[in-house]
Amino acid sequence: MLNESNVNSYGKSFPAIFDTAQGEILTDHHGRKYIDFFSGAGTLNYGHNHPKLKQEILSFLEYNHVVHCLDMDSSIKSRFLKTFDEVILQPRGLQYKVQFPGPTGTNAVEAAVKLARKVTGRRKIAAFTRSFHGMTATSLALSACCTENHKMNPSQDTIFFPFDGFLGEDTDTCTFFERMITASGSGIELPAAVILETVQGEGGINIAGNKWLQRLRNFTVEKGILLIVDDIQTGCGRTGRFFSFERAGIVPDMVLLSKSISGFGLPLSLILLKPELDIWKPGEHNGTFRSNNLALCTAIGALDFWRTNSLEKSILSNATLIADKLNRLLNESPLVIAVRGIGMMWGIEMESTAAAKGISSELFRKGLMIEVCGPEDTVLKILPPLTITPHYLEEGLNLIINAVLHYVPHSVEELKVLAV
Ligand SMILES: Cc1ncc(COP(=O)(O)O)c(C=O)c1O
Questions:
Q1: With CB atoms 3.0 to 4.6 Å apart as the test, which of 112, 255, 342, 388 could cross-link to 272 if both were Cys?
Q2: Which residues of the chain have pLDDT under 50?
Q3: Is the CB of 206 within 6 Å of ligand 1?
Q4: What is the pLDDT of residue 10?
Q5: What is the pLDDT of residue 81?
């Protein structure tokens, strides 16, 4: 748009001027409708402008509740902390303190790493191949997906290890991790923490197995390495349960939440930390926009969706539908290398960047918003709102199947353009 920096990217992938949005449908200024299989990169798990959450904001403002008060106490913050404990932590037997870093995901990563270093007195952080943790200096240094960017933000304090499956299904990367950390002469310093996404989102929908996660947890406990789970994209139900690590029965030392925690697309970020780690001095990590009160207001409303297991059940039945529909592509399209996913987070790995980008563009022209991911943008990423209606879920999946089955690259020139 006029005068906007060239750094804008989604505006280029989805070239429309969006005007209104409701549930799983966005409408542009010409009145054209798009089914949302993107969900603000995982921020809109409950869809756009959810009526219940919208009402929470309207009444919050109506009564002039305090919108901004830095990290001073407020009635909305106290309600949020109480509700989060009651609805999410207690039923799962989890005991965490809650830190409000700055409002975006990367703020949580930065603060968690800083705390891990303070607690352990060590500097190095272990991260994984194809990881993505954000775009500020420390987060970027931990993001294997962004190696080009590392030239601007060197990552000498990061040690990258192969994620589960990175070296092929038969190679056990956990043994490699353990050996590199423990064996003398490996050249690796004991890290303060290991940070990971249990399902790598930007990295191409790579799923860590339960046993791998359990071994990593046991080993990190044994060695006094803090385990930080970055649930910024995978949390709030995206993979089926509220937290992505629940399926493995592990308890991380710190959990990072952002994106869908506000439930409404408002910036909010949390670090859940084991109480004994809370050695911060007041103000040692601060920022103007913490505990964003409007976002806390919708976050409380969104927690209501987790009071029963009905959302969880519908995510699981949607997961079965998505798997059934997409798996046929593996047999029917030579362009499809793999289909993988869990809950409502799925990826179709295509044989080339041009095919993935070409299909994503074609789908946008047909009224479906779907992004590409993976270090080389070869994976079509399916991330509909968790609350999508069965009608639009099926319609979106059918559009994808048709687009993949009928995709024909038009010319070498077009391939070149799409590959940029
Ligand atoms: C797993 C993960 N961590 C961290 C971030 C960074 O969050 P933000 O863009 O809000 O800084 C993202 C963003 O996509 C993410 O997917």
A1: 255
A2: none
A3: no
A4: 93
A5: 98
* Ligand 1 proximity of 128 Cβ (cutoff 6 Å): no
Give the three-class secondary structure for 26. strand
**Tally of domains within the chain:** 2
Residue with CA at minimum distance from ligand 1 atom 4: 133
- Please report the pLDDT score of residue 412 as a whole number: 55
Task: Give every strand in the sheet of 158-161, ordered side by side.
Answer: 97-99, 270-273, 254-257, 226-230, 193-196, 125-128, 158-161
- Please tell me the pTM assigned to this model: 0.96
Q: Report the pLDDT value the prediction gives residue 408, as an integer from 0 to 100.
A: 86
Residue 208 lies in a domain: yes
Q: Which domain holds residue 182?
A: 65-306
* Same-domain pairing of 153 and 265: yes
pLDDT at res. 147: 76
How many Å apart are CA 399 and CA 141, to the nearest integer?
A: 37
Same domain, 189 and 253: yes
Rounded to an integer, what distance in angstroms lies between the CA atom of residue 244 and that of residue 83? 20
Q: Is the CB of 39 under 6 A from ligand 1?
A: no
Q: Is 201 in the pocket of ligand 1 (CB under 6 A)?
A: yes
Q: Which atom of ligand 1 lies closest to the CA of 107? A: 11
pLDDT score, position 291? 82
Looking at the structure, do residues 351 and 232 belong to the same domain, yes or no? Answer: no
User: CB of 110 closer than 6 A to ligand 1?
Assistant: no
